[in-house]
Amino acid sequence: MHRLTKRSLPSTPTWSPPPPPEEEGNHRGSGRPSKSNSRLSQSSTFPTFPVGFGSLLLLTVFIVITITSYTNFISPHINQVANINANTLTKTTTPSAVRLCTSDELLVIKRQLPPDDCLKYRKKPWLQRCSLTYATRCPDAVWLEKHYTNLRFTSGNPSPPFLAVFVGCNKGFDALNALRMGSGNPVFDKGLWNDAITQHGKLTLHRYVCNEVTRTQFDLPLENKVTSSPFLSQVHCIEPMPATARALKQAAQETKYDMMGFIVSHAALSRENGFVSFSADGAVGVENKGISNTNCGGDGTNCVNVTKYSLDSYVERFVPMDVNNNVSPINYLSVDVEGWDYEVLLGGVRHSLARVQYLEFEYNWVGPWKTRPLSEVIQFLDAQFGFTCYWAGFNNTIWRITNCWLDHYESHFWSNVACVNRNIDEVKDLAEDMEKLFMETLKKDDDAVRNYEHRFKRSDE
Fold it and tell me: Which keywords does this chain's UniProt record carry (predicted)?
């Protein structure tokens, strides 16, 4: 029997960002200072002046010029911070607390998400033999669809423009469905998108892990009236793989979705700005390549240098202000970058994460996740921004992670996490619905909930 102690739950220490992972420095143009830059920074100190009236005058002029230059440089950033503080999001400065799960609730969670396989195969996470993988692989996010159904079609009020950022957009189906959901516009259709991205059957895409093309798209009423301008709603589809990014751009142009808010960006996101090399070859829609395994040869041949932004830098540069010149909320942030998810989140600590209403990311054993505990990112999102995070299941199942910690959650198996910012009024109902669904999940029969267990095992196991 699992002994429940305070040590089983993540404490709430003062969070500080972890050091950048070593892997990032192994790539060309990783954004790290070069030796020449280091020498430049060391020599860029205040000059010395000989004593005397003329020297004092020179020094005074130098200081005035320096202050003026600094003011000109920093003022746009100050204005931007002012806009961020003045935006229309109703948000408290101190995140509200989330109640701790009771001992009985933790025991139920442990029965529904048992640790046995997770511990048995801990050293072989690529086998994906863990209840967390069984339960969260290819989640259906019915809680989010319910939120936008209510927002768009039952409230009776005009809805603000929708803004989503998909980091690791891959084939684009999930991003397009999000734009359909958020804008309420039926013109965004997965069938039309599939025809375009496959070049009407001429191009074979890399295999689908979650069969996005066949999964039902967001349901819109037959006589739907778009309640927010499709030309104001946006989804940023960010994809670093050159072949996939080209196919995404061509499909967006053919469908004219690029004129209606479906924005394809050939870029990579991490904690810092810079460049990273990706192979110019490869199938369209490869789902298991990222910064850690770009398939570029050691000599750099046949590689493409892709611009790398921090989340903050990307948002500042490419995400527009609203009609009142205030920053818009980011309604939906999806991060799926093969192990670099936490690095992407750390790149948004200045202002972007504070704007996010709903967040999804993957946890696994590759890239920086190898050495980063999940508890660290859960604490970070909770303490710094007020996110409550859950294991994202399917068939109306969801399990809270924040303040409901179990030790086997540190096993680095592929799993999906969904978080809601409980301190933003615009998604209070979503936060309440997710917590309600969590409580309903705990009331389900354990065997019924655990029907997932054999769903992804091979037939010979």
Answer: Membrane, Transmembrane, Transmembrane helix
Distance, C-alpha 303 to centroid of its chain: 26
**What are the φ/ψ torsions at residue 282 (nearest 5 degrees)?**
110, 160
∠ CA 141-184-187, rounded to 5°: 110
Question: CA distances (Å), 355 to each of 20, 41, 305, 359, 426, in order?
Answer: 24, 34, 30, 11, 11
Residues 403, 286 share a domain: no
> Using an 8 Å Cβ cutoff, are 242 and 276 in contact?
no
Strand partners, 330: 356
Domain co-membership, 102 together with 231: no
pLDDT class for 222, splitting at 50, 70, 90? low
| Spatial CB neighbours of 310, under 8 Å, sequence gap ≥ 6 | 269, 270, 271, 272, 273, 347, 348
- Residue 99: exposure state from Cβ atoms within 10 A (0-12, 13-18, ≥19): exposed
Give one word for 431, left, alpha or beta, with left for phi > 0 and alpha for psi -120 to 50. alpha
Domain count, the chain: 2
What pLDDT is attached to residue 126? Answer: 86
Residue 390 CA to residue 401 CA, distance in Å, equals 5
- Sheet of 398-400: strand order equals 262-266, 234-239, 163-167, 332-335, 358-363, 415-421, 387-392, 398-400
| Percent of the chain residues past pLDDT 70, beyond the cut | 66
- Tell me: pLDDT of 420 over 70: yes
DSSP H helical segments within 123-257, as ranges? 131-136, 142-153, 173-183, 190-197, 242-255
User: Has residue 95 been placed in a domain?
Assistant: yes
Question: Nearest CA to 402 among 415, 413, 391?
Answer: 391
Judged against a pLDDT cut of 50, whether residue 318 lies above it is answered with: yes
Q: What is the pLDDT of residues 133-183, one digit of tens each?
A: 999 988 899 999 999 988 877 666 667 889 999 999 999 999 999 999 999
Q: Are residues 310 and 175 in the same domain?
A: yes
Which of the two residues, 120 and 322, has the higher pLDDT score? 120
How many Å separate Cα 45 from the centre of its chain? 39
Whether pLDDT at 103 is above 60: yes
231/245 same-domain check: yes
CA distances from 431 to 54, 179, 389, 418 (A): 66, 21, 10, 11
Task: Compute the radius of gyration of the chain from its Cα atoms.
Answer: 24
Residues 203 and 305 in one domain: yes
**Domain end point (choices 321, 336, 356):** 321
Cα–Cα distance for residue pair 125/119, rounded to 1 Å: 10
Domain boundary pick from 256, 287, 321: 321
Does residue 11 sit within a domain? Answer: no
